Amino acid sequence: MEGFFAFIIVALGGASLAGSVRIVNQGNEALVERLGSYNKKLTPGLNFTLPFLDRVAYQETIREKVLDIPPQSCITRDNVSISVDAVVYWRIVDMEKAFYKVQNLQSAMVNLVLTQIRAEMGQLELDQTFTARTEINELLLRELDISTDPWGVKVTRVELRDIVPSKAVQESMELQMSAERRKRAAILTSEGDRESSVNSARGKADAQVLDAEAQQKSLLLRAEAEQKATIMRAQAARQEKVLQAQATAEALQIIAKTLQSDPHAAEALQFLMAQNYLDVGGKIGTSPSSKVMFMDPRSIPATMEGIRSIIGEGEK
Fold this sequence. Notes:
about 65% helix, rod-shaped
């Protein structure tokens, strides 16, 4: 009997020792109550409690969790019915508050998020719910974080997933968008036609300006060319006259030398001049506008005397 009682005592002691050892996994925490009141919090690792006096009242993870919010019917400020669902990322930062300050923490979180979503959507018009989604997420995050702080909860992120209007509203929106697209297409078409007309007119104007400039340059170049040609003709005529004068002077010098060296050359010269007069008269007589020319043979000796005097002055 004594051995039996000893075995029972050892067994009870072993059971008590085993019951006093608590192992908490990484990322979790546990709350211990002693005789019905909160005593301490167990952290990850090996922990000890008093057998028969302590019990683990609550154990939960402190890692971030995802709360899926089901679709919720909301009414916007312009009285449009929409369905909204969301997802909330949160984690427990104070295990004692999360257990003792609220009953059924997750259910309380869901109802709080739904209430906040309905309140925020009721302050916006339908168009704003689509364009201001980022602002709505930030506003919900701020409001939920403040509301859940007494529960020892930290809301880290809120995302609205789908905002679905009613079927009638969707059909109206599709009609509106179709009309808007047609209007934009008509505007773009008219703007394109206007730009095309403007570009065409601008191109014609530029072409006319370029044509006028080309004509002006052509006239200037032509005038400059004619001016240069006139100057060159005048220079050529002047050069020709100079050459003729030089040739005449040289001829007169030759004649003078000939007259000085040969006394009979004067008679030959008179004969050539008379023949020259006759040739000139023949040409005048054959021209369409014929003229009557009278020539005095006595003028030939006088002409010869004039030539001699010119030659004599040239020699002086």
